[in-house]
Write a structure and sequence with these properties.
The protein is an all-alpha fold. The protein has 18 helices and no strands. The two termini are 36 Å apart.
Amino acid sequence: MTKLYQTLIWLSSVGVLTCFVKMYILMFLVMSVIIVLSSKFIGRSLSKAVVITDIAILVSAFFTLKSPLGLILPLGYSVFAFSAISLIINQYRDYKNYTALEILCYLFFFPKIFAGPIDRVDDFVRQLRGKKKPTLKKLYLPIKMCIFACFYKFVIADRLYILCNDDYDGLNEVCSILCYGVAFFFDFYAYSIFAIAFGKLLGIDLPENFDSPYCSRTFRDFWKKWNVTLGTWLRDYIYIPLGGNRISARQWRLNILLVFVVSAIWHDLSIPFIVWGITHAILLITERNLNIKGNRYYGFFVFLVCILLWQLFDVNGIEDFVFRLIKVTEYQPIDNSIVVGVFVSLCALWFADRSSTKDIIFRHKDSNRYILKEVPITSIIFVLDILLANNPSINFFYMKF
């Protein structure tokens, strides 16, 4: 029964991925065969050579496909590569006898493949081997999560994106930048909720990927709460192997810079993304050098800077980014629609960041007090999905990476 379950997981994942990447699925299949075969050599005398070769193949394929002379980087490759590198390194550090089918399920698991969360193979396989007993109670939580994910993506994010355009100047441009940063968060947050929900439907608990990042009081805190699984991946497989916190201040600064440059390049091989990564590294280094602990006022500064830097994900070059900054200094009469958009975005952030809201989304309790709060709020969100969803389509921003 377990083998049948695992086979269905893999076949459905390959089917979903094929619908999006077409012939590129052959590349994924070839690479997965290499990873599976390589995992069998781990623990032998050739293990280090195998690890280095596999990582070189995965990284070189990324740069080849991302280069101007290359083809198009297929959707899902980044998460596939991160998962594969994690698997190979974990096997080298502590070999586990996973079956080929278990490895294939881990690499291709479709709820996470397009934009994460990036889970770890040990936890995934443990759940994959567990007994699955579907019940109506187990269906309720993922359905409820999808209701909230639809609200965050199709009602909030997509409508805020519409308000963000190149026609604004002055305070209107500031509002547009703010709306874009909030929309960007809800877009990615919604995808992560969908991924966790579909994972639960298939019997797999994926890790949560956001922890109220815009409530952070320092940039260090922000990177512990934004895209949590990518952050922990970079920490475990780049930052700590380079020495972590147990090195000189000069070497630490270089390592932080390297980590953020790697993160930036993995998003895109372009100057705006590299500037984004270097800027965040400088901000973290400055915080440590000045021993900034953070408070609500500094947290507001962190919020504004992070919002502004997301503009580097939406421009064609540094010139475009500078042009948007210049537009902020120019006068334009207040546009009521963008002001309303800012008000709605801040209200949506307040609602999403409440611990009670996150409890409703990700958990279910049998207490009467909890149910009296959960049912009406979920019902209202469901009605808003029906009435206000803005042309629902699979166009999540982070699926570009």
